[in-house]
Structures are given as C-alpha cells and as structure tokens.
Amino acid sequence: MDRIKEIVADVDNKTPKPLYFLMGDEPYYIDKISKYISETLLTEDEKGFNQMVLYGRDTSIEEIVSSAKRFPMMADRQVVLVKEAQHLSRTIENLVKYAENPQPSTVLVFCYKNKKLDRRKKLYKAIQKNGVLYESKKLYENQVEEWIRKTLSGRGYGISPKACRLLVEFLGADLSKINNELEKLILVISKGTNITPQSIEEHIGFSKDFNNFELKKAIGEKDMGKAARITDYFANNPKDNPFVVTIATLTNFFVQLLQYHGLSDRSPNTVSKTLGINPFFVQEYVVAAQNYPMKTVSKIISGLRKLDLKSKGVGAYNMGQADLLKELLTQFS
Length: 333
What we know:
By secondary structure, the chain is an alpha/beta fold. The protein is built from 17 helices and seven strands. The strands form two sheets. It has a five-stranded parallel beta sheet, sandwiched between helices. The model has no long low-confidence stretch (mean pLDDT 92).
C-alpha cells in the first residue's frame, strides 16, 4: 500500500515517472493505478490530443515506442496506456532501449496482468532505474477480510465479521469482484451503517443461512440436523453451491483444526495468528476441538480428500452432487 501511495502522490503533484510497469496476479490494483493516472494527469481538453490507449493483443513494442516518442501537443506531457500488455510477453524485452532512455514528456503505463518480468533481465533493471515497477500480489483469504473492512471504513461503513466472511466465501480473493459487490451495497445502504449478513442476503443475494460458512459451523458444533438442511439446499441449488467449494472449505477447516490441536498456547491471539483467522471465529475452533479429537480430525481429513477425488471422477463413476453431499455428512458421524 505504501508503494501505491507514492505513485498517487507523484501523480497528484504532477511529478510522474516516465514509465510505469504494473504487473502481477491481482488485476484490481493494476486497474486502479492505471485508471488514476489516466484520469488525473491530463485535463479533459489535453486528453484529446495527448492520451492514447493501446492494447497488447493489437499492437507491438515498436508501435508503442513510436507513440511514446511523440511530443505532446499544447500540453506538458502525454500519456500512453498499454492495456492487456501481457500479450506482448514474448517480445517485451524489446522495450529495453526505450526503458534505458525514456521520453521525459511521456508517461508510458503498461498493464501486465497475471505475469511478471524476469528480475534477472535488462528490462527489469532498466525500469527499476528509470521508472516504477509495481507488482500487484494476490491476497490470502484471511487478508481479504481485513481489506474489506479497511475499504468500507474508508467509505464510512462498518461490516460485521460474519458478513465479511460471507463475502469472502462466495467471492473468494478476487478483489475486483468483491469491490463490485461492495459498490452495490454502498448504493443502497446509508453511510454510517454496519453491513450485516442480512444486508448481503437482501441486496446481493447470498443466503445468510444456507452457505458453506454456516455448514462448517454446524458440523463443528455437531449439529447434523442443521448440516443436513444446508446440504439439502446445496443439492437443490448446485450451480450456486458447487461441491468443489464445499469440500475445499471443509478440508481447510479440519486442517486448521488439526493445527489447533497441536498448539500448546491456545490463547485467542495465538490461535488467530497461527490459523490466520479473525479472533471473532476462534470460539468455533474451541467448540469443534471438543467434538473432534485429533485422531478423528486426521481420519476426517483423509476421508474428505478421498471424497474430493471421487467428485473428480477418481474411484467413482459420475456421482451427482446430491450423492456426494450425502456421503460428505457420513464423514462426521
């Protein structure tokens, strides 16, 4: 985040670097930074002649360099934005000569998604010396919850831990998807409101009662009646509740539970840090550990992994989701 703040400060102060290479596995920040540069550096009048958008699939390094070497018209600088630059990966090293001596009056921005430059090669070193290299890394799911809280807090909203977990469960660690859903909530919820699971169910459509989060909690509490109701719902709504997500969620939960059993210090802070979970959810692991001793947990993990293989057609022929879910519940009896 500090690196992003530096980039934003340079743009705000009208002292941008001549070359920005935005790369990595998390498209969200690549899009946000490139958009901020394109919207901020030039006035609306200047953009007509001095802002150009190229696409990696439809251009070449030579064409990009030719555009970057142009002089601005009736402005101090021009902006050349290269979207989908990852399609230029085979020839990207041809940018070396330009990166070693970039045009001072041009701000050249590469959006190089889901790929990274080789640190050992000349281009990486040249951009590092004369421009900005920014690597946008995927967040782990436990980090995404904190990102959601900070994002909403900055907009004047709060969110309950359960609501936060619900968003991550349904959307994973894709920040762009999460941000889109948060924007929907912000449109319909008053500023200063604390977002709850009910808010998410009402305005986004995720069920607050029938989801993997609630299934995991029910199994941890040995409430198999509730677990059966949830899996019945999953069986009747397979597209919205894919088995692969359910099995992954439960396997991860029991792997964490095995870690919990191995802890000598089970204070909430230690458990939270070791398992990578919000302190709010530590009690769930305390309860589950009482219901499932270490040997039982190991057996369950083994059973879940075998069931995961079955769901992929290994050792079983064409099992439907309803049958997989029935067998799933037998793992905890």
